[in-house]
Design a protein that fits this description.
Elements (H helix, E strand, L loop, with lengths): L4 E5 L4 H15 L4 E5 L11 H15 L3 E4 L11 H14 L3 E5 L6 H16 L18 E5 L9 E4 L4 H9 L28 H17 L5 E6 L18
Parallel strand pairs: 1-2, 1-4, 2-3, 4-5
Antiparallel strand pairs: 5-7, 6-7
Helix pairs in contact: 1-5, 2-5, 3-4
Length: 248
Amino acid sequence: MTLDILAISPHPDDVELACGGTLARAVESGARVGLLHLTRGEAGTRGTVEERKSEAECAGRALGAESVEFLDCGDGALRTGAAEEDALIEVLRRLRPEMVLGPAASDRHPDHGRAHRLVEAACFYAGLAKRKVPGRGEPHRPAAVFHYMLHDTFEPRFVIDVTSSWNKKMAALACYQSQLYQSTGQSGGSRDEREPETKVSSPEYWLAVEGRARHYGLLIGAEFGEPFGSRLPLAVSDLMSVLPRGLR
């Protein structure tokens, strides 16, 4: 199996929160999308490893992903050494994505910045023929590596209109019953009585997710938008294609 897009997440639910609408829209357009979680969220305040794995698989189905995989890079102190690079390189060479979406270089959770560096390094090293790793696959370097926005903001290079796929993103987030506040008014079902509330399990966080999407959507003339960053400038072949929607 080969993919068009591989979205890499430090923890289960990160990538769905940040760019679930983009992934669902890509699937609707015929792209082959996969999700890779670098940990199983084993150090999280709420939920068990088994619950978080099941929730991530549920979210992958909701988005239409062709694969959902997990690595063991260490939640709460995400490792970025040669062994972790090799594990990620093996996935990149096996799935051969044209595009990789990963976390930004700096964010509230230290694991996110570490994951950014791991993704950047592995995407480069995966193209080196003399970088030998266990497993199958010829050298492969993704054509594009973009980063999505989680907690901390940055000046985006582009924003994707996710209005048409917003309901699928919400369906994916609804899978994370142990982690996220649900719009039904329940936060992890009866879990509230036996586990402490976290930032992401609060109703305020749920409202912020929607508020950010509405803010970036407004900037591009859409109802909902998801922002992305890029280390390199983007090539534009048709100047007219970058006109704001209201001026076309």
